[in-house]
Write the structure tokens for this entry.
Amino acid sequence: MDLGELGRLALRAAWGWSDLEFVHINEPKGGAVTAAHLLKFDSVHGRWAPEVETRAAQVWVDDQPLSFSECSTPGEVAWKDLGVDLVLEASGKFRTTATLDPYFQQGVRKVIVAAPVKEGALNIVMGVNGPPLSTRSAPSSDRSILYYQLSGSCGEGHPRRVGNSAWRGDHNS
């Protein structure tokens, strides 16, 4: 599974934030059972306290269902139908505006990319080249793609429904 170290860490860290609602996981290899297992039992961060299980091909965390898909490209997931506003793209495979555009075509408002975007995007490393994100210092446009390390709440006015998208593969490509 490659819900990915960063994807799992982000979900674990932000679970329960009142301004975010996790609704979907996309992981093309391993299936929902493997995703749930790796979310619950992490060899680096230990066992996660919430109850994690699979039911009807969904991952459930503390009785909240997260829909699950096994698509290999962003355009294959029905993000709009799922009501997803924000996606964490943690595969390292989609790092140009052209490869990330299918998210926006599916109605996603923001994509946070966990790797530097090669061209045409706002690359921010928190604490290095940008101010802290807040309601008043939001990125310049709804099509901005951010690279940052998980660092606090998205704040009021930011997208609230999150799809966690991580594709298995070469993270250096």
Notes: Strands lie at 21-26, 41-42, 46-47, 52-55, 58-61, 64-69, 86-89, 110-113, 145-146, 161-165.
